[in-house]
Amino acid sequence: MNLQKLFFLLAAVLLIGTSCSDSDDDEYQTYDVTVKLVYPEGYTAVDDVSVTLVNTGTTATYTDSTNVSGEVTFKVSTGNYVVTATDNRAVGGNSYILSGQLNFSVDNNRDSTIPVELHLQASKSGQIIIKELYTGGCQKDDGSGKFLYDAYVILYNNSDIELTLENTALGTANPYNFTNTNKYYTDGKLSYEAEGWIPACAAIWYFKNPVSIAAGKQIVIALKNAVNNIPIYSNSINFANAEYYCTYDVSGQFSNTTYYPVPAEVIPASHYLSAAVYGAGNAWAISTQSPSFFIFNTEGTTPLAFAGDATNKDDYFGSTSLISLKVPVKWILDGMEIKAQGTTGLKRLTPAVDAGYATMINGYGYSIYRNVDKEATEAIEGNAGKLVYNYSLGTTDEEEGTTDPSGIDAEASIKNGARIIYKDTNNATNDFHQRRKASLKD
Length: 442
Description:
Blueprint: H1 3-21, E1 31-38, E2 50-55, E3 61-65, E4 71-76, E5 79-91, E6 94-106, E7 116-119, E8 121-124, E9 128-134, E10 138-139, E11 146-147, E12 152-157, E13 163-165, E14 168-171, E15 185-186, E16 189-190, E17 197-201, E18 203-207, E19 211-213, E20 218-222, E21 245-247, E22 272-277, E23 292-297, H2 303-308, E24 313-314, E25 324-328, E26 332-340, E27 358-360, E28 367-370, H3 374-378, H4 410-415, H5 428-431, E29 432-435
Parallel strand pairs: 1-7, 20-21, 21-22, 26-27
Antiparallel strand pairs: 1-4, 2-3, 2-5, 5-6, 6-8, 9-12, 9-28, 10-11, 12-20, 13-19, 14-18, 14-23, 15-16, 17-25, 18-22, 23-26, 24-25, 28-29
């Protein structure tokens, strides 16, 4: 081959290489995105904190861990992303959770030298946790629709010692549904986040007497219709159990007998929770589609006195029906955010309470059930041979359905004598899944 032919051959190869590398298609471009965790006062950055990015358009997920400076870099394509992180800390004998969530976009003008700052908020890890929430109801036997008046919550002692609920109350945040217009948002942030409170809408339910829960044990609270519902609706729940608690306070404003018939005779009156009502309505309207729910202890006062103090109230921009109590975040033991299948909306709980959300399909007897902490549960002496695996009650065959990634069937294991430790990261996306059957139906 002469020199001239060799020259033209090399030129052709260079042209081909140049044409392949100059594509403007962003689908095949990647950009460096550095996420920097910004810690609250009193906390310093550490390495090995897991950070997760999710592309909200494609659901592509990226997970990596921070360096000692609290930073981690991802290579991602253009799109809209949500970033979450949770850092568990032990300080002074107490367990704290630092968590956060942020939405941001990546485009072809991205400056890779400017990090995405994810501000974390600290909250004490409550040992009494929400194990299961069931508010979506079930199908009626005659096929005529949904029975929506059999809600309940299970509270669980996730610690190794007996704990007592005293001056403890239940709240649901304003607005009731994930999809409702939320006037609390200003410039994409909840206005009460910086002030450190959560709006408990319309009323709270509180225990009249202290309630002790042994380590690894639970209490069931019927939130509606504390009777045996099965004779009329076979898919529903039987609450006729002397160990159960219930919301029942018809001597006050909540007199709607569709929600609150006289409880089953076997439930003692000492197990009735009372209502402190400061909003409108004759029943506590916890959402059957996308509730937010939390439990809290009042400090230095009783729930009734706290609810009766006008300085603790917020009128939701002049509303007379959606009056809320300003519950301090530091009082909250546990909380969870839920959205309905196939919907978008705005969170009501701040990251210090719940940095994520679970998804729910209502009307079919499904519940939102807490995931097992596999490592902690398997490490318990005596659990070997008692844990039941191959969990099959998840809903991954449903749109946006979920399951327990541990693979442990918690309820079957408990019946087998095992002790369960549940996951508690203050992020419902990680901590909960949608269960095909409410556990009280097992």
